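Project channel, design review

CF: Before we commit to the Wickerhamomyces pijperi constructs, I'd like one complete example in the thread so the newer folks can see what an input/output pair looks like. Taking Mss4-like protein.
RD: sounds good, go ahead.
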Amino acid sequence: MAKATNVPYNNTIDLSKTLIRCPFAKCNTRLIKPKSNETFNVSVNGLDFLQAVKPSNISTKESSSDHVSSLEDEQSEPSNNPGSFIKVSDVWDFDNIGVSKEFPDDITISNGVNVERLIICSDCERGPLGFACFESSETGAAVKDVKDLQYYLCLSSVMVECTD
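CF: and here is what came back for Mss4-like protein:
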């Protein structure tokens, strides 16, 4: 059986045949096995996500596993450009994920919805790897139920292990 290698996400990868892992080589924790290949393009205003691979770190002499180890403690150049995300409706679908406390209301995604929480790797506590928000437009609710949070994992912030 061939050893699986972790690679940065690209849109030719069928996510339903992968495991998504923490991008840090010393961690490499399994975060989730996506149930589908569906992705969402989301622009987040005022929040920069960890970038799993810096283009300047990749050379032709490196193997796929070297790309993982090329991620240092520093983030690459931040970007507010729309990114590819997977949407997870239930936090318990994740294998290992950390969720922050409530986040300030000044960060919104492309449709004006507020980012409520950040998500990180629960083992190494690095990130952010994504965010959580309430998608309902109900503004009259006095208390928001955390069971209604929708989680978005940024695919440029993680490594992908192809399983098939």
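RD: helpful, thanks. The domain at 6-162 is CATH 2.170.150.10 (Metal Binding Protein, Guanine Nucleotide Exchange Factor; Chain A).
CF: Residues 113 and 135 are 7 Å apart (CA to CA).
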